[in-house]
Amino acid sequence: MTTATLTATVDRINERAGQVDWRRVLLVALMVVPFVLFATARFVVRAVGWVLAWLWAAGMVGWEAAGPKRDG
């Protein structure tokens, strides 16, 4: 890549960067916050649900193991 090509590329980038609509950037940033919060909340709820299901199953297995044995 020559210096002229690099300069032309940088100039095009600077020209496009000057055309940024900052209201749209702000709106996108504001929409990312709830998305991240809800995605994190969904992950936490699923993890807690999985842990509760595992604990329930472990309790049932323990209850059956500690209970009276059936004669076949």
Structure report:
It contains two helices and no strands. The protein has 72 residues and is mostly helical. The protein has a domain at 19-65. The radius of gyration is 29 Å and the shape is rod-shaped.
In short:
This protein is an all-alpha fold and 72 residues long. The chain has two helices and no strands.
Secondary structure: helix percent: over 70%
Anisotropy-based shape: rod-shaped
Taking the alpha carbons of the first and last residues, their distance comes to: 83 Å
Radius of gyration: 29 Å
Counting helices, strands and paired strands, the structural category is mainly alpha
Portion of residues in beta strands equals: under 5%
Low-confidence stretches: none
Largest sheet: none
According to DSSP, the number of beta strands is: 0
What value does the average pLDDT take? 90
How many individual helices?
2
SSE pattern = HH
Oligomeric form of this entry?
single chain
